[in-house]
TrEMBL record:
Keyword Ribonucleoprotein attached: no
Pfam families according to UniProt: Mito_carr (PF00153)
Protein name in the entry: Solute carrier family 25 member 48
Similarity comment: Belongs to the mitochondrial carrier (TC 2.A.29) family.
Gene Ontology CC: mitochondrial inner membrane
Solcar repeats: 3-86, 99-203, 212-299
Membrane topology type: Multi-pass membrane protein
Species annotation: Alligator sinensis
Alphabetized Gene3D superfamilies for the sequence: Mitochondrial carrier domain
MF GO annotations: transmembrane transporter activity
Amino acid sequence: MGNFQLEDFVAGWVGGAASVIVGHPLDTVKTRLQAGQGYRNTLNCVFTVYRNETVAGFFKGMSFPLASIAVYSSVVFGVFSNTQRFICQHRYGDSNHASTVSDLVVASMVAGFVSVGIGCPVDLVKIRLQMQTQPFIQANINLKPQAAGFPVQTAYRGPVHCISSILRKEGLAGIYRGAGAMVLRDVPGYCLYFIPYTFLCEWFTSDGRRSPSPSSVWIAGGIAGAISWGTATPMDVVKSRLQADGVHLNKYKGVIDCISQSYHNEGLKVFFRSMTINAVRGFPMSAAMFLGYELSLKTIRGVQADINP
């Protein structure tokens, strides 16, 4: 690819790190709600986590996402931007030509497919670490209680132990548990992520400016994130349930079985559980992601221009 540019990957890494720091507490609440652990609503989940685990409970499992989601975002933004330039180069003879909606759709879909290879193991470990202190309420298995009430046992000592345990018990396929649901979530999800962002940035950018202002990037990125995460909720619920499955017992055979059991036991509304928190969480996370990406990209290109005037 003649127009391959490495700086998109570097800027994506910075954006990914920013989004994790901003969004992890709400991500923990989202995961607990989706996995079906008996919380009445979002506020009940927040208060229960705080009461049982203090503020630290909201940041459970954050070290691994901070290290890995930065890499994941680096790949997503790098693949999307370079694919977009590759398409424009071949269609119009200019890699900097304005992209059409169809160009953006193809670039978004490619980014979505590629992202699953890295994102699925990252999400799996994050969710297992977030879920492992949950009581065995629905496990239906005999365990010796550690204290009065339901036992709370730690399955994994950390990210490395989590990965090694999954590989030992479930093999390589275990690391990619929920990959099918993630493809169904991310391929359309990234279309509803990058396309709204691109057009909103153009709309917010006044005539005469070469690039959108930081405030425009923040708003456009936040709106795009809210749209993308809100609409991705049904398949995100399925993915989270498949990946949380296996901490205490295995309930689901695959995507279809998870959808069937969830619908049969909890009705259609289960697939829209946490839609509000997904959209609310999507705004600051994506705003931080795009702002970190755009500012880093501008800084890198500015430094390169100074070095090579």
